[in-house]
Design a protein that fits this description.
By secondary structure, the chain is α/β, with parallel strands linked by helices. The protein has helices spanning 19-30, 43-55, 70-81, 106-134, 145-149, 155-175, 193-196, 201-207, 216-226, and strands at residues 10-13, 34-39, 59-64, 88-91, 137-142, 180-187, 238-241.
Length: 246
């Protein structure tokens, strides 16, 4: 019998080699998507996520480029688009470089914004028209509770992530008639290498009403839902996943 099933939709997850990004990649692959796992410089870690997806019977490949570099991003995405449109994009790439603003360097301010905000544009913009031609798409950006509440020492990070909220709400209005949703998830304290040192258990008990850190899998489940067929009418939203922090 000839298999007439259509190929799986393709998803690009930036920052897919980290704790949270890896969980999102695994979730999307389990949901039947072909996942392009992005890394900045450490392609080996992206390949480890790809191998884990393959081990579980999923479909994935790795790619490496600096999302803050517009030319490099466009070149890498042009290569990916040779195989067809990418209909799911998860903008998860982001970095911390914390300091009180009074002591923050110009480089600290700009690099954090370059990755989280300019990276969002560099990755998402070239994918929009090919996605729109399919009349279906899902764009999810990973923000932070810091963008909603603020956080000491993170004016650069909070500014970059809060900017994603406005950009996503505007893009949702532009793309909704093409069957494309654009949403943001704003995690609170999530288990992993980035949070381990900054949030000791006692601090978590004091600041998180739920009394615990969230897990990468919990965030990935929310992202997976927003990328699904069932979530098509959720558009232009910022959804907190923070144990009741705000």
């Amino acid at each position: 019998m000839i298999d007439t099933a259509s190929p799986p939709r393709r998803a690009l997850v930036t920052g897919g080699s980290g704790d949270l990004g890896g969980a999102i990649c695994m979730q999307l692959a389990a949901d039947g998507l072909h996942v392009v796992v992005h890394a900045n410089a450490n392609r080996d870690r992206a390949e480890e996520v790809v191998a884990a997806i393959h081990h579980d019977g999923g479909s994935a490949e790795a790619v490496a480029f600096d999302v803050a570099d517009g030319e490099a991003s466009r070149a890498a995405i042009a290569t990916l688009l040779q195989d067809g449109p990418i209909q799911v994009v998860v903008n998860n790439a982001g970095i911390h470089d914390d300091a009180p603003m009074a002591g923050m360097s110009d480089a600290q301010w700009k690099r954090v914004i370059d990755v989280s905000l300019h990276g969002f544009f560099h990755v998402t913009q070239p994918l929009l028209l090919p996605m729109a031609r399919t009349r279906w798409g899902r764009i999810v950006s990973v923000s932070s509770v810091a963008a909603v509440l603020g956080n000491r020492g993170q004016s650069n990070y909070a500014a970059a992530k809060a900017a994603l909220h406005g950009a996503s709400k505007s893009l949702a209005r532009e793309m909704a008639s093409r069957g494309i949703s654009v949403n943001v998830v704003a995690p609170g304290v999530i288990e992993g290498r980035m949070a381990g040192d900054a949030f000791p258990p006692e601090l978590i008990r004091q600041t998180v009403p739920a009394g615990r850190a969230g897990t990468p899998g919990e965030v990935a489940a929310l992202v997976g839902f927003l990328c699904s067929e069932a979530a098509g009418y959720i558009n232009g939203q910022v959804i907190g996943i923070n144990g009741g922090m705000g």
